[in-house]
């Protein structure tokens, strides 16, 4: 068995910086446990916690680690294999050998972490933890801390981790480029493989194969559907027909666990219909405008607002909305068509660091997330900085239930031409998505080229 | 969205029978919740609990159900979607509509199940539950029962569920045939796709694609490796070379969630080596003998013992062991080469009902599982009955660490020719596995034909 790791200095330096940022107390970072599927020992594919990966790199279940923010003393906790284990799993490195691979010289059995935590508490020291999202870790932390994990002080740690993980290192950008390029290959396979009469799940199978054949996996469950208006559609049982579009939102997680997250919308048949082309072009125009705005110093909230305004300008041109597009965005008109956010941070998680809290990852003490419909789904609002990696993913989604409700309420009817919108009630949805690194003077699109213009897409449908 | 369901009478009849078998008290069955991967809302593919599927069929997260074993009153508990949910997930049937699909007319919000449970407890009634294997359900049950789930009485329920699920209905056998046939396709793809120089994960990708393209998934993580001696080997990073064998243990879960579980061992190059052929033939002989014994009335423990004896006879013929094979099996000699069990029950779970306890599924009050090395890994020992579905999977595994330990201890050296065994230290492993239904007069091999003789396998490697 071979470990996929950066050079050990990468982890040593990251931990040193974390220690400086946190300054005092004991930092406890939990690795993940195996996750049971339909009985205890039938496991889902193991996924290590991303923050644990960031500081310790070890992609193995059943580990935890502490960093003393004052002394710098660092220990990895885990249990050694028995001969019985070796028969089933083969010979694996010891915990001590694994720890050495990432520059840690102190190791101890897993449950010893609890003792260290309790000793620190007994001496009145702060124990910094991250809020657990896996129930196994919730229960373990509750036992070790002798209190619910929610009660432990962790804001200092949360902010320190975000400060580090939000600014991608060159070594990470290389991995993200790789993950996005694999993701692009997944999309090319789907576009080329599509034929009227197939089932959606046959395309999903192809997408997954490309990820797995590159020693990767999916960074999130594939959204691939002729019902693109359903934002998180994981039903893949439809037969696809000429005249429909496929919305494919799929990304790879590469062998180093960095994510890609791309979306393309393409015709089931050889060509888009003229109505599909019209709306596609509006989404693409919004995307191009958003990309042109990306640079350090602009808030992503502003980019989202301008992208929404561009969408409404386009919808105005075809008679679906009326009035001033900027005023319409201020009133929330765009949220009838674009109910979600323009993008989010991306890295070791596809929604990077979502477990640490969107209010800290995507917003700040002074810029808070809006609670209004549509805006509340914008995961990233803060001012962009060099080294951020994010997605740009505008879309138009005709959700019949939402259109019906707004129309019945005559909501914002001075902006919305409901009679014209009614004709699009069963249109479906379009999303286009690429991934970007914020550079000193703008942005850099990550990964290999993936066709996105109408002409490029239709050229791929010549069969 | 379309639900994959049997006719509602199937579920109604199963529940009626369960009610009769349990007789008194309140039965509480937990459906599964979504399972978080690297942050709360990034989920693993949903897998419903198999017992919940068996009695209620609904493949949806966040449900629970009760059956009053006296009155027969049955309720499904679940929460309705909000408009916000619908935007993300699309319009889904209501809980009431879903319940009607499986013949249940009473529904209530999820947390009401707790009230029903507590009312029953307050009236001194037994609440029957199954031991949870997912931590979300452990925590929920602890809250509802006001006690640790381990404390609740459930043996009556466990035995009733096993009695039903162990005897497969005709409608289930059809689904298992389907799952095994998809599994056979997965194996054919792997055998045909293999070329020296490839990575193991490229073959895994192909295997997964076949399952997904049939609207299925994996019934367990693929074991596919040139290190076949590692029984549960989920590392797929090796480059495969001519002269090596691939051991591929992979099965599909079909759209109705029934499992297949097949293993084949084949050469990376065009042909097996003569030494590989020799051991392959020994394993195949053991398998054929085991299959010939399958019939109602024989214990699977006996089948395992005879299969082990056949293995040792073969190993004696090539000089690895000596003495009387039957005596050698009694002494445990076979466990140096065959450390695991000959097979297990299979159905909605690949190790069927493993969550209910091997001591009840595979053994009885009078036939207890052995605690000895090797024997303790035999999941199924009991007398076979018509309608059981099981796997037969003999193998020879040369585990260097185990050979070294036994050799150093001179363990059973009057039976084992350690000098000869040493030459096989790095041989690897061979397993061959098919799935069977126990019929009134013997057994029926499930699913389409998958080549297993040396000649058949090598014919597939002509490229």
Question: How is this structure best described in words?
Answer:
Two copies of one chain form a homodimer. Chain A is α+β, with helices and mostly antiparallel strands. Chain A folds into two domains: 8-166, Creatine Amidinohydrolase, Chain A, domain 1 (3-Layer(aba) Sandwich); 170-460, Creatinase/methionine aminopeptidase superfamily (Creatine Amidinohydrolase, Alpha-Beta Complex). Helix content of chain A is 39%, strand content 14%. The first copy, chain A, is built from 16 helices and 17 strands. In chain A, the strands form six sheets. The first copy, chain A, has a five-stranded mixed beta sheet with strand order 6-5-4-1-7. A three-stranded antiparallel beta sheet of chain A has the order 9-10-12, with helices on one face. In chain A, helix 5 crosses helix 6 (135-145) and helix 8 runs antiparallel to helix 9. At the A-B interface, strand 2, strand 3, helix 3, helix 6 and helix 9 of A face strand 2, strand 3, helix 3, helix 6 and helix 9 of B. Chains A, B: It catalyses: Release of any N-terminal amino acid, including proline, that is linked to proline, even from a dipeptide or tripeptide. Chains A, B: It comes from Chitinophaga cymbidii. Chains A, B: Belongs to the peptidase M24B family.
Write the layout of secondary structure elements.
2 copies of one chain form a homodimer.
Chain A: H1 8-22, E1 26-30, E2 36-39, E3 42-43, H2 50-56, E4 64-68, E5 74-77, H3 83-89, H4 95-101, E6 106-108, H5 112-122, E7 127-128, H6 135-145, H7 155-166, H8 170-193, H9 200-213, E8 217-218, E9 223-225, E10 245-250, E11 252-253, E12 262-267, H10 274-293, H11 300-317, H12 325-331, H13 358-361, E13 389-392, E14 395-397, H14 400-409, H15 418-422, E15 429-431, E16 434-439, E17 442-445, H16 454-460
Parallel strand pairs in A: 1-7, 5-6
Antiparallel strand pairs in A: 1-4, 2-3, 4-5, 8-11, 9-10, 10-12, 13-16, 14-15, 16-17
Helix pairs in contact in A: 1-7, 5-6, 8-9, 10-11, 11-12
């Amino acid at each position: 068995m071979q470990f996929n790791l950066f050079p050990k200095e990468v982890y040593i330096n990251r931990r040193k910086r974390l220690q400086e940022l946190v300054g005092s107390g004991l930092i406890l970072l939990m690795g993940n446990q195996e996750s049971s599927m339909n009985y205890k020992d039938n496991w889902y594919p193991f996924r290590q916690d991303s923050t644990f990966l960031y500081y310790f790199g070890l992609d193995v279940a059943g580990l935890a680690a502490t960093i003393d923010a004052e002394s710098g003393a660092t220990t990895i906790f885990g249990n050694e294999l028995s001969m019985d284990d070796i028969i089933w799993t083969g010979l694996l490195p010891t915990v001590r050998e694994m720890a050495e691979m990432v520059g840690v010289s102190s190791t101890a059995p897993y449950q010893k972490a609890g003792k260290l935590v309790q000793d620190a508490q007994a001496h009145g020291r702060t124990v910094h933890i991250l809020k657990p999202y896996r129930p196994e870790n919730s229960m373990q932390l509750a036992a070790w801390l002798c209190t619910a994990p929610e009660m432990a002080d962790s804001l200092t740690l949360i902010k320190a981790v975000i400060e580090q993980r939000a600014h991608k290192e060159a070594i990470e950008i290389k991995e993200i480029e790789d993950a996005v390029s694999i993701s692009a290959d997944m999309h090319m396979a789907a576009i080329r493989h599509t034929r009227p009469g197939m089932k959606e799940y046959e395309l999903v199978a192809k997408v997954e194969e490309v990820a797995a054949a590159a020693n990767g996996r999916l960074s999130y469950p594939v959204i691939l559907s002729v019902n693109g208006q359903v934002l998180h559609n994981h039903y893949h049982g439809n037969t696809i027909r000429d005249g429909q579009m496929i919305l494919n939102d799929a990304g790879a997680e590469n062998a180093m666990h960095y994510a890609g997250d791309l979306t393309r919308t393409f015709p089931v048949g050889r060509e888009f219909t003229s109505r599909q082309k019209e709306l596609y072009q509006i989404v693409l125009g919004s995307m191009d405008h958003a990309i042109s705005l990306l640079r350090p110093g602009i808030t992503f909230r502003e980019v989202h607002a301008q992208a929404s305004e561009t969408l409404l300008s386009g919808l105005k041109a075809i008679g679906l909305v009326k009035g001033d597009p900027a005023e319409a965005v201020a009133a929330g008109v765009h949220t009838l068509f674009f109910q979600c956010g323009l993008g989010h941070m991306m890295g070791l998680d596809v929604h990077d660091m979502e477990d640490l809290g969107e209010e800290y990852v995507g917003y700040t003490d002074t810029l808070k997330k809006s609670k209004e419909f549509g805006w509340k789904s914008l995961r990233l609002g803060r001012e962009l900085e060099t080294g951020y990696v994010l997605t740009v993913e505008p879309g138009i989604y005709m959700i019949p239930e939402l259109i019906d409700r707004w129309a019945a309420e005559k909501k914002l009817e001075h902006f919305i031409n409901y009679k014209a919108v009614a004709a699009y009630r069963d249109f479906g949805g379009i999303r286009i998505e690429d991934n970007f690194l914020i550079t000193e003077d703008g942005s850099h699109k990550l990964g290999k080229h993936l066709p996105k213009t109408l002409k490029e897409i239709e050229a791929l449908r010549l069969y």
